[in-house]
Amino acid sequence: QVQLVESGGGLVQAGGSLRLSCAAYGSIFRINAMGWYRQAPGKQRELVARFYSTGRTDYTDAVKDRFTVSGDTAKKTVYLQMNGLKPEDTAVYYCNADLKRSWNSGYSDYWGQGTQVTVSS
Hints:
7-stranded mixed β-sheet, 0% helix, elongated, single chain, mainly beta, 4-stranded antiparallel β-sheet
């Protein structure tokens, strides 16, 4: 089994900062990418930020210059530093990993349980 365990959500005022952490546990052969998605009430889940084992990073335009994704696929960890938070950042944030469990298996997506981030105005 694979489990992604998140921490670090909470309530913060607009302009404040939060740091999310996620670690992957279980039988994992290799991780291609790890990152964060979010889902606000009534909206679809969307990519926030992701980093790849190659060093490449992706950000949604809404968080560029405010959020920073970091981590280490070999250590199976990913972090999201969120600065300059806005009320529209309020959502449940999900950790995601694109990984394979054995040398001869394909890559699949795994998800954490989600952590609530609420930004008050």
